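Notes, p. 3: input format for complexes.
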Amino acid sequence: MLYGACYYPEHWPRERWPIDAALMREAGINVVRIAEFAWSKMEPRAGEYDWSWLDEIIGLLEAHGIKAVLGTPTATPPKWLMDRHPDLYMRDAQGHARGFGNRRHYCYNHARYRQLAAGIVERMAQRYGRHANVVAWQIDNEFGCTDTVRCYCDNCREAFQRWLQRKYGDVGKLNEAWGTVFWSHIYNSWDEVVLPSYTVFPMHNPGLHLDYLRFASDAVAEFQQVQVDVLRHLSPDKPITHNFMGYFAEVDAYRLAEPLDFASWDNYPNLHFDKKADPLNSAVQHDMTWGLKRQPFWVMEQQSGSPGGNFIFAMPKPGELRRWTYQAVAHGADAIVYFRWRTCLFGAEQYWHGLLPHDGLPGRRYEEAKRTGEELQRLSGRWLGAGAGAEVAVIRSYDNEWAMDIQPQSFGHSYMAHFKTYCRYFYDRHIPVEIVSADAPLERYRLVVVPHDLLTHPASVQALHEYAAAGGIVVLDFRAGIKRPDNRMEERTIPGAYRDLLGIRVTDYGSLRQEDSRAVTLTKGAPAKEGQGGRIWYDVVELEGAEAMAWYAADYFADTPAVTRHAYGGGAAYYLATEPTPALMDALMERICAEAGVGAITGISAPPGVEIARRTDGHTEYIFVINHAEEPAELRLDKPLSELIEGFVAEGEVQLEANGVRVFERARKQEGRAAEDSVTAPA
Ligand code: GAL
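Output follows (683 residues plus beta-D-galactopyranose):
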């Protein structure tokens, strides 16, 4: 297994490098990511290159058995470069240049910057593209981090106009699609079209706004592609990745991941002060990263110390690094790279702590990473390459997310907050899920959940119909089918393109305040059970072939359906007309999962706060039990199981300390079905 750290040799004197390499080796580190911000060290002045330091460090690492991932340095164009091309700075919506002094200050659409980026990558690839010790390339760094996708400069306006011209062909079609007759926005030519920048009131035409968000995301993909092309040409055998951020939504990560060989992401579970992080967040983002290519991924930056810019956030307590690492592995990470090797003595991130503290002496966090690495090297060969065998897909659509971001409709509501209500259910019930794009093949899943499918793209509408007709179970929810892909309202009665699939129509609706809910009962006419209700929104639904599964128990729409089920072909389609409170979600999803035949990971009971996740090659299951709580937990095993970390056969009640991890192994009865609880010999 590749196990490593992010290393910045350019931050340290050369005399320190052999000490670092030796300490890394001692800790079981066999890969480092380097160079992703070092442009001004590679090319100190225009056309003047210095590769001596990079040659030396790659060679030194090689001598210590440590591979290198090379980052292309395009997130940090140097000062000399910016001075030559001042129009390269990205601009905010008010037109202000986002100046020099941090990073990611460039505009993706600047033609000259694309050439300059290709130039430095070409030089790097010529020199290291076939180097035996280079194991992969990382393009740029966290595209879009710190709000750097949406630029409002003149380049972008012109590029947006060209993008629109390609999309619509005729400006009349654009006017029609956006409804520019509203407020006298009719455009006579492409060059009149504006960006959604600063106006008297922040409400742009929703068609224009959504197209701009799509365009801005496409620009990043195009910018990346320039580098992919160079690397494919000069370094054809080395895999390419980019380090994504799971929740980050300004770039369509599915599109960005397409030309890459594997996905990776940067996992910072705790960015709080003295507060425990919710482990759901890392779990969801791991699953999102898995779903980018539906294959194992890397964690390219794994938090290894307290984060800090101007403030210093919570220092991971003993056991937390190991717990976070196992959680990543449990969700499909096949490589872990800690951020960062040593805490820097200077610069904006001098308080962002790595494995080693400022003084460079190995301590608690180093020892923990070392121990974790030893365990993983001993065990991970068993599951590398395997997935979770998930039977549930949750569809993430950036298009819908953008449309909801522009118009959340209910105050304080967000696509992702709603999305996570489903994830929460599956996570708490130990049901593995894949988070995939709307065009992923669905046949392999028993249950497909589609949160907020506003924009009803014809291809996904058809795919969901076909999936249900062939026996699949679909869950759609409020606001599905209300819009056309161009972000105009649908004229058809809600849920528009899904009306036949869902067997309902929506005759009335309203939004609710964040703190409000309406009681919902699972037995018509009976009072709702404690805590069971709907939040954020209510649709008033009439049945057109569907049956009601739950009813509102309050307000003028009491006794009308809040949740419906419609038999469709060999399968069924459910509609949630409101956002279920956790208690209602539990009751509903239990029924829906039962109908779909979706199984939780069985055989182990654990108290809340303990996560159970799995990797399986179809024959054997590796079950990771992770105690995220601050107290010890007691697990109950239905049957004896082999525990791999300590190497014993566990049975009955098993203790798990705070931050503790156990990995159980068992044979799997048959592909895609619930596991058999047979014991395999301990390692
Ligand atoms: C990541 C970024 C790293 C470093 C780290 C800590 O988002 O990729 O370069 O900045 O955060 O802030």
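The CA atoms of residues 516 and 535 lie 6 Å apart.
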